[in-house]
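Q: Entry one of two.
A:
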Amino acid sequence: MSMYLSHGWLPMPLILGAGTAVPMNLSYALQLDRDVATEWWRRGRGMLWFQHLRRGGGTSLCNLLRHALVHGEFVEERSEACQPEEWKLRDASVVSGHNLTTLATELRLLGGNAFSQEYGALPSRELLARGAARRSMRRWVFVTNIRDPWSRFWSQLRHEMAPCLSTVQALAVCVAGQHQRLGPWWSPTSHIDSVLGVSGFRISASPHIYSDNYYTRMLLNRTDLNGPPLTEHDYEVAKSILFQRMSAVIVVEDFARSALQLACTLGLNLEAARPLLFTQIRPYQEHEAMMDIPTESELGVQDVTAVRLRFIERNRFDYGLYHEAKKLSEIRVAKCARQNPDVAALRAAPMVQEVKKAPEPVVASLDDIFGCTNGSLEVGPDGSYVLYCPRTSEQASRSWWSPLGSHKRRAGQKVPGEHCWREGFKWGFCCDHRYGPYGNKDCHVVSCGLLTGSLPRFC
């Protein structure tokens, strides 16, 4: 092993590009890199790249990694879902100028050796390149999560792209990647940046990435949907990266057992991990209380089934990865159980415990927020969100919110809605004419116009 660590040896260089044949020893080379990285990690000198595949149970896995992974040091201060503040809602690789040596240095300066990449792809070019680019990745171990592709997609629609579920026709539009036909396709409790990432550092320019072999594209760093279509060759390369370079692929549907493979690959404190294996983190739970989203049966089971079949056909590469990942997880956990009696005991234990949810903040209802009686949020004829807020005159007098907007200011009069602008947001910053007819996009859903979906209420 020492000669690998000192010289970065590989049998032959690897290049990934259009029309390039995959070398016969690709799987061997990637597995060798994984072994080298694992050795660095076990010595306490490695780095961890957690590729968080969105809406696939990654937050629960982050919780487990943070509290039970041996040698793992995530940046705790101002972090969210294992992402340091500096890279939140951003592709960390882009932020670092695609220099992964710089990325590793910055992570160490922040006091960590592990992080989550949620709004960017895996650095496949570096993993499959030749020379220094590949050698720079020799200290990185990789972990990821995976979930049934349709379940992952449906969950994302429920929490982040609710307009796609307004009708079965809207669902078909989103599966086909034609989100622009819906107008604002993101949920009223969400924002385009929270779905795709901050402008300039996004996972992709289009939400269609989530319905077009999302897993495969993230593994290959093929997030430009205007590029050439994915091929069987691409799928084989993605599968090699997923199964040979990843130290663990955690299947969310079998989270408690699947995560046990970490005990034998990177090291897991089983005592600390035991309760976390049965803890499910649902960061978007509070959003559900704000919206009335139809179920599959309400949209029409037969119609949804037809759309799902089109989704499955379109995402055949992702389904291939998912089914192979389930088999791989079982094999790795079984092998680990043979090596570790504690893992064997956990693996053999009946998984009948009720999945616990992490403590969640108390969520205010629409009535609580706006002073209504049986208030509701509905989609208007033009696709915008309309708040219906029945209330008495007494409720109106006590509420901070007025549906009537504001009158033109007279000399000496205060800025419209000054009492309800949140800290850091003012009329001039959000509503000045230089931002155009729709105002400053960074001010959406931050003021008294909380649910208008366009301009703040007092612009």
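Q: Entry two of two.
A:
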Amino acid sequence: MEEGLMLGFHLTFLSATLCVLLVCSVAALLLRKWMGNRCYLIAYACYKPPDERMLNTEASEYVISKSDPPPESLRFQVNVHIKSGLGQRTYAPNSFFQENVVSSMSEGWLEMQETFVATLDKLFDKSNIRPCDVDILIVNVCCFAPAPSLSAWIVNHYHMREDVRTYNVSGMGCSAGVIALGLARDLLKVHKNSYAVLVSTENLTMNRYEGNDKSMMMSNCLFRVGGSSLLLSNKAVDGSRAKMELVHLVRTHLGQNDQAYNSIVQREDDEDVMGVSLSTYLIEAAGIALKNNITTLASKVLPISEQMYFVYNLLCIKLLKASVKPYVPNFRLAFEHFCIHPGGRAVINGIGKSLKLTDYDTEPAHMTLHRFGNTSSSGLWYELAYMEAKRRVKKGDRVWQIALGSGFKCNTVVWKVLKKPDPCEYNVWSDCIDDYPCTTRNPFELEYKQRFNLLSKQS
């Protein structure tokens, strides 16, 4: 009898133990799968060229004059420059400062190599990893795709492993940084325990426009040298040292709309001069793309009360045909920080107005445009660096990055801050952050308007 009871006890204990082990094993597998799908930002670095590459208003006029443009073309470009919101400390490539602007392959490569080395050296130093530790490398440059590829040059320069997975993203415009980020996230879901490096920049040397089409002169006035490099990881052990975690990424493409598709196009003008054309439909395309994007994102980030009111308002308009204004959700309830693509003053103001943001919310975008200009896909990281330099970013904060680009595309990403930034860490704004925020009005505006006889036209 006692032996039977003991046997029953042992069987029960064994069954219970097996059940506990099974539950623990399943939980461990689920936890490993969940942790493996996380995408951490370990570190990032932005490029600041040497001071001798600064392009103030006077230097900008000098560079424009080198191509000997007609007076009307020179007048137009200078006028756009002084109204652009760009300051006196943006940067241009080395080729712009030569006796004649040189758009050669060697100068184009030089511009890329300087950006790559400056940002990647800082990135590896910040993160304490070696180039041979990188498993995935993604480079995005819209209008420069040489052979060997840009990623191949980085592999060669840093002697990376022969099994490193490399990708080049081209032709995707200023929002390519988020597209490449989405690619990195998806690759990290497949390749466990991996590091991914993402490099974003643009090439001005090979894409300077020297014709007289006003729609194509705009890019000369807004784009400047800049770049960024990011280190991403899906390793559970990196959760304790990561700066941020990627929470959401939403992509919107209006390529099926002919007007939106043609709002930013690289083409030849009537005189067969290559350049990038910006149409008057650009701002409207940006508004439509942003609206479609936030309609998808809203359900993922907004409080239930905001979502319900948004849906109710939409039903009133669509089904009941009520004459009420579309409700704009209060996204300040979902995010503490906003990084708006610093493509131009009109873009920043338009998005800020659409989302009912405050001057404080749009300040990083305006100041980034003023200090560094439109650096294409890397601009969002200069904005984050600005907020970190201002000590605005705290643990638990949510950051919304909004990128716009040719196609036409609106791509957005949401980050959660995992730790407060180290105030001693190198920051691209370190030497000038006390000067900001500042007025974005060009100090030479009146002088140039008088010299180019623009006063009467403005009035």
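A: Comment on entry two: The longest strand covers residues 244-253. The chain is about 45% helix and 15% strand.
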